[in-house]
């Protein structure tokens, strides 16, 4: 069994050594330009087209939860991946817990009004602010996949009402689930804190726009943990200025790193992190990949297969 590896920034040696320990029977190598030797599996992030083109692979594993980089390449180069070759994403591998931490931190901060108290501290102002009720501090998740379900469960544990919206019907214990375009408005109208975990597809680009944000409960909050392409940045600034949105926490942006002159840097009600809300954890990811490859070798279909036609 031959495995090729490519990532623009990960240490190839660390991953090859770790996977070799988990799959001692495999021959694992770092792919380099000109390498057209046989391979059964490819582990990739932003792979060059020539790495995959023409190969009869048993599977391709994207080294992250998102696969929009590969799907974008496929739209431009449809022959990059042979028909029928399954593409898998990392379903969780530790990213779910990181997303939970990020969401819980911001939701509890806004619920307890800690950012407002920090502003008062900076102004040397001692003033008690009215408390908020949990029943009115409803959380809505755009996206009800594995990561969305994890985040939902972590917020349910704090007693908040939680709902989700997805393109197709989903069921999550304790969560009010909406689906399809016809239920999106109803979902938004019930939401005080909107958390975006949608996949990046042509249909979801720009979904976080002024029209959508204006349908949330007045003075709502926004967390974007998915992709910068989902957010119309000027619309968020306008919604903050109009009071439709009270604050936002953003981990992803149209241009990364965020330019030094971007208005988000100086906006008092926007929290920024450098696209690290959830990072790939090598040990957990290698465990998942090794287990999945063994399933493929035994004729089973691992979880995390991407529906290329849908984009996730």
TrEMBL record:
Pfam families associated with the record: 2-Hacid_dh_C
Lineage: Bacteria, Pseudomonadati, Pseudomonadota, Gammaproteobacteria, Enterobacterales
Domain D-isomer specific 2-hydroxyacid dehydrogenase NAD-binding residues, every copy: 106-277
Keyword list, A-Z: NAD, Oxidoreductase
Organism whose genome encodes this protein: Erwinia tasmaniensis (strain DSM 17950 / CFBP 7177 / CIP 109463 / NCPPB 4357 / Et1/99)
UniProt keyword annotation of DNA repair present: no
Name of the protein this chain belongs to: 2-hydroxyacid dehydrogenase YcdW
One GO MF term: oxidoreductase activity, acting on the CH-OH group of donors, NAD or NADP as acceptor
